Amino acid sequence: DLQICQHRAPTCCTKKMEESYQAAVRRERTQSIQALNFELKYMIVGHITAFQEAFESLLRFAENRTSSLFETAYRPMAKEAAEPVKELFTDISLYILGAETTVESAVLRFFDSLFPLVYSRLINPGITDLSEDYTECLRLTRQDINPFGHYSKNMVTELSKSLWASRMLSQALSLGIEVINTTEHAALTKECSRALVKMQYCPHCQGLTLIRPCVGYCLNVMRGCLASVSELDAQWRKYISTLEYLTNEMAASHDLEIALSGIWNSVNEAILHAQLNGPQLSATVDKVCGQPRQQEGNLSSANIVPVKEVTEAQTFVMAHASLNNKRREFISYMKRSRTFYASIAERLCDGDLVMRDSSTCWNGEDVV
Predict the structure, then answer these.
(1) What is the DSSP string of 305-316?
(2) Alpha-carbon radius of gyration of the chain
(3) Which PANTHER family would you find in this protein's record (predicted)?
(4) Cα separation of 139 and 136, whole Å?
(5) Full-prediction pTM beyond 0.70?
């Protein structure tokens, strides 16, 4: 009553043993593919972790640098500016990790929160009544009177260019893991599991436990079994090319590190622009929001402090070098995996599964 290992000679197999063999080949095939995938998956997961760590390091550096700007040059508003600064960098981090937000909304929200502080602490430092309504009016007015000139829009443009590639790379790496995980659990068809039993276990039914399949026979069976997986070849090659493009974009003129480290300078230029145009801004705000209560003897609004660059260059250089090296190592490895899905049958037939350098092997029917 054998269904797979039918042979003219007497046999020591039963139908139940054939069923056990089918379960065994399914388990073994999954384990073999997992073993092949392990190194590739390990590299991608490792790069995701390294990329996120280096990115978080750069982000902390840029945030500290921006916070230091307020503490050294704009002390009257430093304490209140801490929250908007923190929110800006949290939004940037979430954007790169794939959240449904935009760089533009994050930057403009930051400048909306900044304007009431700049107006009441630097342009008109005598203001004592900063009610919720007045603050909200200042936030809304910011969009119309554009107190920060072209600096806020420039910041959106620079960050959007550099953060886009980082966001895409982060999503692409996650997609790679998803693809690999899916191929590990690709179900074997009934025909495939029968062909694998015939190749690997039918010799056992004749007592030939040391005979292994012929190489050509193994390749035919594996290619048939993995036809659906090997169809990923063209898409996988495109995927590797896309990763290469994204890493080149990140390392090109729209460099993530340069854009992040330049945030403090954009913010400084924006605040200086607002201070220099203080009288015109005050006149417009008075018309729109009314005149707030002020202390006697209004303080001068000309207390513009030129800011010196915060010196944390060493940290930045290290994080920058780390990210660049990780990118180069990673893309070099991934390029070598271009043929991963095209050669999966060959790799599974390599090693102990088949008989090499021997005069006898199993061809599915007999020993040849």
Answers:
(1) -PPPPP--HHHH
(2) 33
(3) GLYPICAN (PTHR10822), GLYPICAN-5 (PTHR10822:SF19)
(4) 5
(5) yes
- What is the helix, strand, coil percentage profile of the chain, to 5? 70, 0, 25
Tokens 């996988």, residue located: 236
* DSSP one-letter string for 203-227: HHHTT-TT--B-HHHHHHHHHHHTH
Q: How far apart are CA 249 and CA 266, in angstroms?
A: 22
The answer to whether 139 and 308 are in contact (CB under 8 A) is: no
Strand blocks (E) in 71-185: none
Torsion of CA 113, 115, 116, 122, to 10 degrees: 130
Q: How far apart are CA 83 and CA 87, in angstroms?
A: 6
Structure-block tokens of residue 46:
């490792």
Which helix (H) or strand (E) covers residue 273, if one does?
helix 263-276
Mean pLDDT, 10 residues at a time, the chain of 368 residues: 82 90 92 88 86 85 92 91 95 90 94 93 80 88 90 91 85 89 83 93 89 91 90 93 84 71 92 93 89 55 46 58 76 89 89 72 87
